[in-house]
Amino acid sequence: DLTKRELEILKYIALGLSSVEIAEKLFISLRTVTSHRSNINMKTGAKNTAGLLSYAIKHKLIVM
């Protein structure tokens, strides 16, 4: 299961924000965003952003 923060980051990824933009928006470091993205990819089995978004849509984690 994704954490609340990971779901929040996933939402921003789906909106097209870069890791730098996500870090600025959430007032966290770029390294923290990168770590969360890595954890999200590992938990979902996604190899890239397209795979991650596909997973998120299929599992209704984000609404497009």
Description:
This protein is mainly alpha-helical. The chain contains four helices and no strands. The protein has helices at 4-14, 19-26, 30-44, 49-58. The longest helix is centred in the middle third of the chain and has 15 residues, at 30-44. The two termini are 21 Å apart. The mean pLDDT is 95.
Which helices and strands appear, and what pairs or packs with what?
Elements: H1 4-14, H2 19-26, H3 30-44, H4 49-58
Helix pairs in contact: 1-3, 2-3
Shape: globular
β-strand percent reads under 5%
How many strand segments? Answer: 0
Report helical residue fraction.
55-70%
- Counting DSSP H or I runs of 4 or more residues, the number of helices is 4
Low-confidence stretches: none
Give the N-terminus to C-terminus distance in angstroms.
21 Å
Salient structural properties:
globular, 69% helix, 64 residues, mainly alpha, 4 helices
Give a short summary of the structure.
69% of the residues lie in helices and 0% in strands.
